[in-house]
Write a structure and sequence with these properties.
It is a single chain. The protein is of the alpha/beta class. It has 14 helices and 17 strands. A three-stranded mixed beta sheet has the order 2-1-17, with helices on one face. β14 (370-373) and β15 (376-380) form a beta hairpin.
Length: 430
């Protein structure tokens, strides 16, 4: 009996042929149907499908390469050559209402801003500058040979009600927060802020198009976002409070139901790293772990971070065996990477001025970079110290100014979701 090695790496006999058929599509639809008629038929079909399903584990690269050629969506890590990307849109961005989950994720000096402008659009002049910056960023990406897609423009200031809460929207600026691509699958994150409950609507036309062209599309369980999901008495009044609560493993989100933002996950082939944060709970991580098993291993990391929210300005994997680790937020499990022979890089202190508004993020967006491949990185034009760091690593810097776009809560990694990278599924850990 042939031991069938499928595109995603599992050995499942006749059932694997059916799974493979779902990936390849109409071209082998008849073949998939036959695999359920008899074991002999399944074996025969597997034998004739050598181009996309092979019998030897040593040929997994050929199999995943076949997947990459068939499907418009294919990305296994953060550094393979980038071919297609979704870039967010700042248009119509709104300040989220000053709810408990927003308060827990923002800095005290901006709380009056949220109290005054929650539910209204961000300052018009600032958004206009951000729009121009993101347009230039897209032009640069296209010049580097990358296909650029955008979500829809939506009026985020409209009020909406569910049986459990009411809110206005926020934006479709950060696709990394809501979408996670794992192989040929797009996973829609459930999110944790009420202002982002309907954010997925801006991306649905794109996702439906990818689905119709062969991608796998999964929507994680949508949370109710009732009061039970939040610690409504979360005691935060200072940075010291945040440090103490984080050290005790206490967060504004409870374990009432699964919730997570996609930006709390970092991909490195068969290993995916997640953090428990203010927007991602352990139930959300466990849902992802079960969903992606057995092909992928989901590991939970933790950091000395008083306000954990999104992993990519704390721990950013930029190549095979190479990771940027925020020196202000050391990783408690860093030995995992050291024991695997990885190089740990501490990025330099950010240069952004104290008076520049960062309503939803820290200065460490300087390390929130986008790898175009192992030797090219898109980085903030004004962060000259990190340019030097990359140059010492032999990585060419593609410099773009997005300072005003930073104010909305993200750097290059946040503002993008890589849909297609040219590469194969590999393991970078023993």
């Amino acid at each position: 009996m042939i031991r069938v090695r499928c595109l995603r790496g599992g050995s499942r006999g006749a059932e694997s042929a059916h799974f493979l058929g779902a990936l390849i599509g109409r071209a082998v639809a008849g073949w998939v149907q036959k695999t359920f008629q008899s074991t002999q038929a399944a074996a025969a079909a597997a034998t004739t499908a050598k181009s996309s399903c092979v019998a030897d584990d040593d040929h997994k690269d050929q199999a995943t390469d076949a997947l990459a050629k068939e499907c418009p969506v294919c990305s296994y890590n953060e550094w393979d050559p980038l071919e297609e990307v979704i870039v967010g849109r700042p248009e119509n961005a709104c300040v989220p209402p000053f709810t408990m989950e927003v308060k827990a994720n923002t800095y005290e000096k901006y709380w009056p801003f949220y109290q005054q402008y929650g539910g209204q659009r961000f300052p018009k002049e600032h958004i206009s500058k951000a729009v121009a910056e993101i347009e230039e960023m897209c032009n640069v990406l296209r010049g580097e040979g990358v296909v650029v897609k955008h979500p829809e423009i939506i009026n985020w200031s409209e009020n909406y009600n569910t049986p459990d809460f009411k809110s206005t929207g926020m934006y479709a600026a950060m696709p990394r927060d809501i979408l996670l691509v794992v192989g040929n699958e797009i996973i829609e994150a459930p999110m944790a802020w009420r202002a982002r409950f309907f954010e997925y609507r801006a991306y649905r036309p794109l996702i439906k198009d990818y689905f119709l062209r062969g991608a796998k599309w999964t929507t994680a369980p949508k949370p109710q976002m009732s009061d039970e999901l939040y610690n409504m008495e979360y005691p935060i009044s200072s940075v010291e409070d945040r440090h103490k609560l984080a050290a005790e493993g206490k967060f504004v989100t409870t374990e009432f139901e699964p919730c997570f933002d996609a930006a709390d996950f970092m991909r490195a082939g068969k290993d995916i790293f997640a953090q428990r944060s203010q927007v991602t709970n352990f139930m959300g991580i466990e849902w992802m772990r079960r969903h992606l098993a057995p092909t992928y291993n989901v590991h939970t990391l933790s950091f000395k971070d008083p306000n954990p929210m999104h992993i990519d300005a704390t721990f950013n994997i930029i190549g095979p065996g190479l990771v940027l680790s925020n020196p202000d937020r050391p990783c408690h499990q860093i030995e995992i990477f050291k024991n695997a022979g990885w190089t740990i890089i501490s990025p330099p202190t950010p240069l952004i001025s104290d008076d520049h508004p960062l309503w939803m993020s820290s200065k460490w967006l300087s390390m929130n970079v986008l790898m175009l491949d192992e030797k090219r990185v898109m980085v903030e034009k004004n962060e000259t110290n990190i340019h030097k760091m990359f140059e010492k690593l032999g990585i060419a810097t593609i410099k773009v100014n997005i300072r005003n776009a930073n104010s909305l809560g993200g750097g290059f990694h946040c503002w993008t979701c890589d849909i297609r990278r040219r590469g194969t599924l590999q393991s970078y850990f023993n």
